[in-house]
């Protein structure tokens, strides 16, 4: 495993620590051994995305409306066409067939059926999809979610939220059969019935908010989470433990021993950026595990 001293300069180390929470986004990559660190790239950004406050400063659940309210039928049509091309590309890809195989035939299927077993349909909640109008990765990620609903009969309604969604994106999402939420939940959805959370390349705080809100064995055991590898977060945390003690990953790191992870295979370069480091996560916590104590002891 790479040691921080092997990195060339304090700047890069600082950047890595800062971006360890995001791990991935649409953007400029610095590769070192088998780690890939990505930093936001503002060049080529087609739409000026609204600036967000840091998740830590923004824990309140608030009513939300899109910041970008400009829309025209042409703009919506253009985006819908881009989405249809993307859905078709994913559907015909080897990436998608390997992805479905993993769900249906591998060891993972036991974990899925344990959670889906008693339910007719599982709701899918998508947080942090990003801008489907400006970037390909969010389009590929959304295509995958939509195709899952089309191909897997146990997936029900899809709800989507990202504070940067524009009115055009919101209308296209609704047309594609997704319900765009009007509340920024900050990832703090309480799980009563099993839910599949599709959170591609979100910040660690958002995963942590979800876990913290459901910090009981029976809630956690009802969650299927698609998102950044928790194992990688743990590795980063241990690599940089002298530099950062990150409160915002406390629940994510505490739940690690009770988490089963299945890594998504990106198969080809076309899908690398959108799905690199993405995993299915399942939690298996016994009723006698004192989660509060474990979290407190960290
Ligand atoms: C690193 S980006 C990932 C975007 C996209 N999934 C990708 O891989 O390129 C994280 C996304 O999380 C979104 N986000 C931030 N706070 C959020 C919240 N409270 N609820 C849902 N999404 C949020 C950001 O707006 C951003 O689009």
Automatic annotation (TrEMBL):
Keyword Signal part of the UniProt annotation: yes
Residues making up the signal peptide according to the UniProt record: 1-20
Source organism, top-level taxon: Eukaryota
GO cellular component term, pick one: nucleus
Keywords carried by this UniProt record: Signal
Residues covered by the SRR1-like domain: 112-282
Family classification: Belongs to the SRR1 family.
PANTHER family on file: SRR1-LIKE PROTEIN
Descriptive protein name: SRR1-like domain-containing protein
Organism the protein comes from: Tagetes erecta (African marigold)
């Amino acid at each position: 495993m790479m040691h921080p001293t092997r990195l060339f300069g304090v700047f890069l180390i600082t950047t890595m620590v800062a971006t360890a929470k995001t791990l991935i986004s649409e953007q400029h990559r610095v590769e070192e051994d088998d780690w890939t660190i990505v930093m936001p790239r503002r060049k080529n950004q087609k739409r000026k995305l609204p600036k967000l406050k840091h998740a830590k400063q923004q824990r309140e659940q608030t009513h939300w409306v899109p910041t970008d309210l400009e829309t025209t039928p042409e703009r919506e049509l253009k985006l819908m066409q881009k989405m249809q091309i993307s859905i078709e590309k994913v559907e015909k890809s080897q990436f998608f067939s390997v992805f479905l195989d993993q769900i249906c035939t591998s060891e993972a299927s036991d974990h899925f059926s344990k959670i889906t077993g008693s339910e007719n349909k599982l709701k899918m909640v998508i947080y942090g999809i990003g801008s489907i109008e400006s970037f390909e990765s969010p389009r590929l990620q959304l295509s995958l979610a939509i195709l899952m609903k089309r191909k897997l009969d146990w997936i029900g309604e899809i709800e989507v939220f990202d504070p940067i969604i524009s009115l055009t994106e919101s209308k296209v999402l609704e047309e594609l059969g997704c319900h765009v939420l009007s509340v920024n939940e900050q990832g703090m959805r309480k799980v009563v019935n099993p839910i599949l959370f599709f959170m591609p390349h979100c910040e660690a705080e958002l995963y942590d908010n979800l876990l913290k809100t459901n910090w009981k064995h029976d809630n956690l055991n009802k969650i299927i989470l698609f998102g950044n590898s928790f194992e990688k977060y743990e590795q980063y945390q241990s690599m940089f433990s002298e530099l950062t003690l990150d409160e915002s990953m406390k629940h994510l790191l505490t739940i690690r021993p009770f988490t089963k992870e299945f890594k998504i295979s990106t198969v080809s370069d076309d899908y690398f950026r959108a799905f690199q480091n993405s995993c299915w996560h399942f939690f298996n916590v016994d009723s006698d595990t004192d989660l509060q104590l474990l979290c407190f002891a960290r």
